[in-house]
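re: that complex we talked abt at group meeting.

here r the seqs, copy pasted straight from the sheet so there may be weird spacing, ignore it
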Amino acid sequence: MTSKTLVCHASAEYIAHMLSVAPHMLDHPNIVSELSGVALFNGIDEATLQQFAQAASLRTEPKGKILFIQEDEAEWVYLIQRGWVKMFRETMDGAEAVIDVMTAGHMFGDNAVFENDSYSYSAQVVEQVQMIMFPVSVLKKAIASNPSIALNMLSSMSRHRQQQHLEIEHLNLQNAPQRIGCFLLRLCPADVGQSLNLNLPYDKTLIAARLGMKPETFSRALAVLKKDGLIEITGASVFIPNVPHLVTYTCDHCSTAFPCEDLKG
Amino acid sequence: MTSKTLVCHASAEYIAHMLSVAPHMLDHPNIVSELSGVALFNGIDEATLQQFAQAASLRTEPKGKILFIQEDEAEWVYLIQRGWVKMFRETMDGAEAVIDVMTAGHMFGDNAVFENDSYSYSAQVVEQVQMIMFPVSVLKKAIASNPSIALNMLSSMSRHRQQQHLEIEHLNLQNAPQRIGCFLLRLCPADVGQSLNLNLPYDKTLIAARLGMKPETFSRALAVLKKDGLIEITGASVFIPNVPHLVTYTCDHCSTAFPCEDLKG
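got the structure back, here u go
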C-alpha cells in the first residue's frame, strides 16, 4: 500500500498513525516555519509556503525502512529534519551503489519532477528519521508558476552539481585514507579548534560504501590513519588530536580548501 | 587580456580575428537556428532566441587552448558545435582531476550563473573546437525573466545530475575494463548492429584520466578487453566484434540498460 493510497482513503488520525506521527505534529504553522528555513523556499512569500504546508505531512520512520524504490512513481518530496537517509541504485547483477547519504536540512525526491515523475534512485532510512513530505505535484505547480521557486531550485541543483564534481574528483585522485579524512572533516563544525571528538553518524559498512570502498579497504585505511596518529577511534567515537594535520593530509589533495564552501550554508 | 576587454574596446573585425573566426560566420540567422536545436532553448520564442543570437559570437580554437581557469570571472557560456573540450580542476598539490569531456550539442560555463559568476572548473580544448559563445549576463537575465528558460535549465541540470550519479556508481562498482567498455558503448549509435568500428575521440591518456585511471591501469584494462575478445584496437581505431557480448560484460554491472537513456536525446 503506497502513501498515496493512504492519503486518498484514510482519516487524518489514521494517516498520522500509519506515518508514525502524533496527530498534534501535523501542525501547519510549524511546517511553515520549518520550510522557510530551507534553501528552496528562500525569499518565498507566506501564501506559497502555506500552500506547501497545507499539503505537507510529518513522518518519522525507523532505521531500515525503505521509503521508495528506483523507478517507483514519484508521489512525495522529502525534507529531512533529523536522522539519515541513504540513496542507492542497484545494478543489473544486484550490486548496490550508494550515491548519497543525507541528513537534516536536505531534500530528496525533488528531481523526480524532471524525470517523468519517477524516482531515479531508491531511498532507505539508515538512522531513525523525521521528515516533512509534500506532494511532487505541489512542487511541480510551484516551479511552473513561481519564478523564485524555479530559481531557488536551480541554485540548489547547481550546488549539488558542484559537490558531485568534487566527489568524482576525490574518487579519481584521493586514496582511501584521504577520502576517510575528508568524510571526517566534513563532519567538523566550521569553527573547529585544534582537536575534536566526534561520533560516526552511521555504521562503518555504510560509510565504506558511501566512499566507494570495500569494507576491508575501509578497515585498512582506518588503520593507516591511526598508525599515522591522525585519528584515534573506539567503536563509533573518533578523536582527531590535530585537526590542521588531518587538513593538510587530506585537503592538499583536493581542489577546494578546508572548511568546504558548500557546508557554509 | 580577457575576452570581455576585447568586446569593450575592439572592432567587430578585430574581435572576429582574435577569436579565430571569419567575420561572415558571425551570422545571426545561423546562430538562431543552431540555438533552437539546444535543450536550453526548447520551445523558446523567436524574440528571445534573437536576443541570444545578437549577443553571441562564433569561435574556433585549436587543440590545447585554455578557454578559462577555475575561479576566473565568468563572462561567457559556451555551446560546442564540433570538437571536444575538457573540464578539469586542480588540487592544492597540483594534480589534475578531469571532471568532464564534452562534445557537440553540450553547453558549459552555464552554471557560473549560480556560482557568484565565477567558473567552478577550468576548460581546455582537446580536439579543435567550434563553439557559439554568449554572455553569462544574457543567460542570467533570461533565466530571471523567462520561466521557460528556467524550466529548460532545470531539466538539463537534472539530466546532468543523473549522469553524475551514474558516474559515481561506476567509479564505486565497475572495474577498469568495464568502465572502458562503458566509454566505448556510449560512443555507439543507438541503432548499432552486431559489430562496430569506431575511432577513439581523443587521446588515450585523457580517456584514462576521464575514467579516473592511471595510464598503466588503462593499458592493462585494454589488454584484458583484447584478451577476452571483446575489442580489437589499433592506434585510435577500435573494432567491437560482438556488441551484445560487450553490453553483457559492461552493462550487467550498471543500474541502467544499454543504450543509455541520456544519450537518446
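couple things i noticed - The radius of gyration of chain A is 20 Å. Chain A touches chain B through 46 residues (CB under 8 Å).
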